[in-house]
Design a protein that fits this description.
Helix content: 25-40%
Distance between the termini: 26 Å
Structural class: alpha/beta
Largest sheet: 9 strands, mixed
Radius of gyration: 20 Å
Shape: globular
Number of domains: 2
Bound molecules: guanosine-5'-triphosphate
Number of strands: 15
Strand content: 15-25%
CATH topology of the largest domain: Rossmann fold
CATH class of the largest domain: Alpha Beta
CATH architecture of the largest domain: 3-Layer(aba) Sandwich
Length: 365
């Protein structure tokens, strides 16, 4: 089958490929965990040309003025060619504006967008905006969530701030910051691994991180534009974390950290559902709707690769909390791979069993 027929089939089935939209990386992390430091270091990097950065901030220390080459109103172009704007209010308006000004040639072309959230925030509303606003979701697609965790205070923050557990759970990459002042990270790393089995954990000192390590966490490799399904789904990581479902029995040892059954991270579950036969896309959608209706509040993140009756190639789906991105039809299955459907779910206060039961009831297999 050629790419054209795959795209044609996808269009017929109402599956909208995500290619052509600007990939968005959302940088989140608790207050003071080092987001701005990471961004300032990134902005200097030559590989950040053709990147637009939106900093959502409330009167805090902004970007480093020494790096700024030209400025038009609220937007500055950095030495690296990176576009940068700081906002205090309306993210939707800013994202629309970026597109408009790009059309009018008022700003340089950009191929990638990074949004820094405020430290207090649950990243979900921003992710929802990206996925649901009609103008924005037509132009941008969520590529990845990057979360900073402070190596010095991360344990205490995870203990006391449920939002910080969520931020770690939904991440595609975790940046462990300040390892210069807190080099013993074994316990915290274990704990983060339990909350989020798949995200690579990268130690970062003073924001020094390779942009390539951050981008490319999404489905499409930004350089090749080809989907990297295995890396994106990382289903093996969830399989290895299989006993995750049972760790409320108290046998888990997080390094030096003593066990407490009420810890927020013990409420997080990650698991994989599989189906070996082709599934009906409409039934899959029915299942998602039923899942949202019954357990929407518990869902944190979902990613899946589906083998559906309506198209030959794989279909990628993902959602954050109860909001789902439009599905993306990919050209073909990876070389040598037997087609099948796999869905990874990260949830809070929700076990695999009821979800799987419902999945079987709707989708079969
Ligand atoms: N020692 C050390 N300090 C760091 C490192 N990264 C950041 N800091 C310091 O930690 C403090 C907070 O860093 P920021 O980058 O402002 O953190 P933030 O997450 O943007 O903070 P908010 O925007 O307030 O949420 C600053 O004083 C930084 O200089 C690091 O790797 N090592």
């Amino acid at each position: 089958m050629t790419d054209d027929t795959a795209a044609g089939d996808a269009a017929q089935a109402g599956l909208d490929p995500e290619r052509g939209r600007i990939p968005v990386t959302v940088l989140t992390g608790f207050l003071g965990s080092g987001k701005t430091t990471v961004l300032n270091a990134l902005l200097k990097h030559p590989a950040m040309g053709h990147t637009a950065v939106v900093i959502n901030e409330f009167g805090e220390v902004g970007i480093d003025n020494l790096l700024v080459e030209t400025a038009t109103e609220d937007m500055v172009v950095m030495d690296s060619g990176c576009l940068c704007c700081t906002i205090r209010g309306d993210l939707i308006e800013t994202l629309r504006n970026l597109i408009r000004r790009r059309w009018r040639d008022e700003i340089p072309a950009f191929e990638r967008l990074v949004i820094e959230t405020t430290g207090l925030a649950d990243p979900a509303p921003i992710l929802h905006t990206l996925m649901t606003d009609p103008v924005i979701s037509a132009r941008y697609r969520l590529d990845s969530v990057v979360t900073t965790v402070d190596a010095a205070t991360g344990d205490a923050t995870l203990d006391t701030q449920p939002e910080s557990v969520k931020q770690a759970a939904v991440a595609d990459r975790i940046l462990l910051t300040k390892t210069d002042i807190a080099p013993d990270v074994a316990g915290l790393t274990d704990r983060l691994r339990t909350i989020n089995p798949a995200a690579p954990i990268l130690p970062v000192v003073q924001g020094a991180v390779d942009p390539d390590a951050l981008f490319g966490a999404g489905l499409y490799d930004p350089s090749s534009k080809h989907p990297d399904v295995a890396a994106w789904l990382a289903e093996e990581a969830y399989e290895q974390a299989h006993d995750h479902d049972h760790h409320d029995q108290g046998h888990h040892d997080h390094g030096h950290h003593h066990h407490d059954a009420n810890r927020h991270d013990d409420r997080i579950r990650a698991f994989v559902l599989r189906a070996e036969c082709r599934i009906d896309w409409d039934k899959f959608v029915d299942w998602i709707e039923a899942l949202i209706a019954t357990h929407g509040a518990s869902l944190l993140r979902m990613k899946g690769i589906l083998w559906v009756q309506q198209v030959d190639g794989p279909v990628a789906v993902h959602g954050v909390q109860h909001v789902f991105h439009p599905p993306a039809a990919l050209d073909r299955w990876p070389e040598g791979e037997v087609p099948s459907s796999r869905v990874v779910i990260i949830a809070r206060d929700l076990n695999k069993e009821p979800v799987e039961k419902m999945f079987r009831a709707f989708v079969g297999d």
